[in-house]
Amino acid sequence: MNHALLPIPAVIDTIDRSVINNHIFTLRPEQSIELVPGQFVEISIPGVGSFPVSPCDLVREGLISSCIRRTGRVTEALYYLEEGDLIGMRGPFGNGFPLSMFTGQDALLIAGGLGMAPMRALLKALLDNGQTGRIILLYGSRQPETLLFRDELVSLAGHSRVDVRFSVDFAEILPGPCGDVLCRIGLVTELLADLDFNPRKTVSAVCGPPALYRCVLEELALMGLPPAKIFATLERRMRCGIGECCHCVAGGRYICKDGPVFSLEALRGMAEAI
Ligand SMILES: Cc1cc2nc3c(=O)[nH]c(=O)nc-3n(C[C@H](O)[C@H](O)[C@H](O)COP(=O)(O)OP(=O)(O)OC[C@H]3O[C@@H](n4cnc5c(N)ncnc54)[C@H](O)[C@@H]3O)c2cc1C
Ligand code: FES
């Protein structure tokens, strides 16, 4: 049996339930697993099934945190578990974001909805290594109440290198307190309109639903970012995570193994991957 197919036990260390149906589970696998932001693990619940998830934080002291949305059968079963319960974990899988490409460049991070979870891990990695210039984060959510990590992002906006801007699709009034964070009602793509940045010195990462990719990736290229410096992370139904079952194939590539992070340059050659 391939060891990548054998889950190792992991204990649920803590559960942060502050955002309804988007709880943050911090897990301690029996053997530590190193993960680059954008890579993923497969979480299994005995007798129920498994699902892929990316971390929303850097791995610290063997702990892996993920913001997991209650979506269907397996994530629902996870929500019935408590701190101290055991689950299974396999990984790491996939390629992750190319962190070295951000060195000496500015970063333009664009997240929609739950895409803020893996984006937070990337943001933390860029802040930690201190090699990236200005970091701009544009984050859009449906409603003010579903903005994830809001207080943390608001406090980051006081950081001289970080420019955070929120958008919410629907709201009667803008959410407060937003501190130094500009917040608009509208789509996250609208935040690009008055953004002042140097596209030739910028690497961009986009995380969110396919609808976001369809409108933003080519727009970034039109703004002057080279397609090889625009990255998006794709989601597909996964099984093995190692390129053996063919469940995740899209545009002729294995999303689990060749991705899930692809540059726009690569995506242009992957018909109907988005
Ligand atoms: C690389 C990767 C990283 C991910 N990171 C996260 C994360 O950080 N947090 C998080 O909450 N979720 C994440 N997901 C999505 C997560 O894997 C699915 O929500 C999960 O599989 C749902 O399982 P379920 O059994 O609860 O739902 P199911 O009962 O299987 O499905 C419920 C609904 O969700 C749809 N669905 C299920 N899986 C996917 C998928 N992979 N892509 C699109 N639609 C799907 C189904 O078609 C159905 O409509 C990630 C997926 C991938 C591939
Ligand atoms: S999940 Fe099996 S080949 Fe990708």
Query: What's the architecture of the largest domain in CATH terms?
Result: 3-Layer(aba) Sandwich
Sketch the major β-sheet: 7 strands, mixed
What string gives the helices and strands in order?
EEEEEHEEHEHEEEHEEEEH
The first-to-last residue Cα distance is 33 Å
Structural class: alpha/beta
Number of helices: 5
What topology, given as strand order, has the largest sheet? Answer: 10-9-8-7-11-12-15
The total of beta strands comes to 15
CATH uppermost class of the largest domain: Alpha Beta
The CATH topology annotation of the largest domain reads as Rossmann fold
Task: Assess the beta-strand content as a share of residues.
Answer: 25-35%
Hetero compounds: flavin-adenine dinucleotide, FE2/S2 (inorganic) cluster
Are there runs of 5+ residues with pLDDT below 50, and where? none
Number of domains: 2
Summarize the structure.
The chain has 274 residues and is an alpha/beta fold. The chain is built from five helices and 15 strands. A seven-stranded mixed β-sheet has the order 10-9-8-7-11-12-15, with helices on both faces. A six-stranded antiparallel β-sheet has the order 4-3-6-1-2-5.
Give a description of the structure.
This protein has five helices and 15 strands. With 274 residues, it is an alpha/beta fold. The chain folds into two domains: 3-93, Elongation Factor Tu (Ef-tu), domain 3; 99-233, Nucleotide-binding domain of ferredoxin-NADP reductase (FNR) module (Rossmann fold). The longest helix is centred in the middle third of the chain and has 14 residues, at 116-129. The model has no long low-confidence stretch (mean pLDDT 92). Bound molecules: flavin-adenine dinucleotide and FE2/S2 (inorganic) cluster. Flavin-adenine dinucleotide binds at residues 40, 49, 51-54, 66-69, 71-76, 114, 117-118, 235-238, 260. FE2/S2 (inorganic) cluster (FES) is lined by residues 238-241, 243-248, 254, 256.
